[in-house]
Amino acid sequence: MIDEVGAGTLVIARAEDSAPIGLLVYRLAADGWLEFRFLAMAQGLRGWGYGSEAVRLIEASGLARRYGARVSDGNGLGLYFWLRMGYRAADAGQLPQLDNEPEDGITMVRDQKE
User: Fold this and answer.
1) Domain that holds residue 60
2) How far is it, in rounded angstroms, from Cα 95 to Cα 88?
3) pTM for the whole structure
């Protein structure tokens, strides 16, 4: 679901059970970007592909052609997740709204064609 300011939330659930097992928060940004703002899975369900499938669903929705995500310094598993999804470290200033986030981290990006 996307609200009037271009922010959306995807509740992640298994097909056979509607109970939430994860959450993906994103927002549409300037110049055709979509920013993944938050992704979390229930304990014990990481590594099963649910988060990857949720990201792929949003990417396939046609909402944007360029995507960004911020990974906190020290979050090696998060960095590995985005690398496996085909994201790369952003060039300096490529997605300034994420570069200006208060915490130290790495901005990861992917174009639809990548």
Assistant:
1) 7-111
2) 12
3) 0.83
